[in-house]
Amino acid sequence: MAFYNNILELIGNTPMVDVSELSPNPRVRIVAKLEGQNPGGSVKDRIALAMIEEAEKDGRLSEGKVLLEPSSGNTGIGMAMVCKVKGYRLRIVMPANVSPERRQLLEVWGVDQIIESPGNEGSNGAVRLARRLAAEDPELVFLYQYANPANPRAHYEGTGPEIWRDCPEVTHFVAGLGTSGTLMGVGHYLKDQNPAIKVWAIEPPSGEMVDGLRNLEDGYIPPIFDEQGGAELLDNKTIVGPRDSIEWTRRLRDVGVFAGISSGAVLAGAARCASRIDEGVIAVVLPDGGWKYLSTGAWTDDIDLVTERAKTTIYF
Amino acid sequence: MAVEVRLPNILRPHAGGQATVSTVGSTIGEVLKALVAEYPGMAGQLVTETGEMHKFVNVYVNDDDVRYLDKLDTKVTDGDTVSILPAVAGGGF
Prior knowledge:
The structure holds two protein chains of two kinds.
Chain A: E1 16-18, E2 28-34, H1 44-57, E3 66-70, H2 74-86, E4 89-95, H3 100-108, E5 113-117, H4 122-136, E6 141-142, H5 150-166, E7 172-176, H6 181-193, E8 198-203, H7 223-227, H8 230-233, E9 236-239, H9 242-254, H10 261-276, E10 280-286, H11 303-312
Parallel strand pairs in A: 2-10, 3-4, 3-6, 4-5, 7-8, 7-10, 8-9
Antiparallel strand pairs in A: 1-2
Helix pairs in contact in A: 1-2, 1-5, 5-6, 9-10, 9-11
Chain B: E1 2-6, E2 20-24, H1 28-38, E3 57-61, E4 64-65, E5 81-86
Parallel strand pairs in B: 1-5
Antiparallel strand pairs in B: 1-2, 3-4, 3-5
């Protein structure tokens, strides 16, 4: 289909491209799903649309309502685009230390308000503040991506079937862990088709982001991770640091794929997976394109300098 | 086995402010037990009374989360780095 009635119809059905030349193991192929091809620029368009349309259906969301959401960027941007098209107002709670392009994009879409949470509390701080604000004002529509079943469902019904359709030879699925929506939705879908498929989660090091924690009880596990049995679903969970993430973002560039820094992290994780298995086909989700990270100098500046910068900026 | 353990900010006060401590053990369970023996303030913060890993604690050998390896039975070898981190809202994208 080449003609669309509405920009929102372009969400999903993203292409997959073989990037096996980056695989450290000649018997392991790596196939990347380019979520940066979504109209709002990231994988989060999928859940933004799914959560908003679910809320319209069940009556939580109607004309004149104001939405509130914690986001370090992409979910906020995706929701802002959907809200612009559908005519809703939106407030975003965002950590102070995200790349400036994320804020600029929220301004492009004309969100009502960007509320900053302390940078050293990372996404945890944004979640905490948003939950408090939502509890204080019941008029706000709080879709809350970390606990909204429409988030993993968008991947169970969209991303997962697309990967299975385009790459049925998949043996491993590797994606980043944030809300866990992509991993839970795609992971469950793929294992339902073929229980032998392994699912790997990639995390950024929490680093300074955990400085805001006062005790372990302040820890946070996304409700959808618990509700969807994340601990049983995942076969591995591994940390990829900023230097590896940036190096692999550059390697993706070298094969013509201009992707964001979390995509580099996912590729680094896929390479680690490839080097530990004998043979297979690894499908990875690259969450967004490189546009929002130009100001970080990720591709052009000295790698040591960029790595240091990445330690204090939320890029995942 | 001698391993290096990296502590998160919130546990450092129990280890005299150190960010990294050296300890011994051949499994993660033994390493955590040795830690608590040396720094009793960590008792109950890493492993629960029923012997399970604390829900909000993630323990990594090198970069891999031991929950998806062999949990407390995960083997460690000389020179491994064990990292203890609180569970937080990932990158959150």
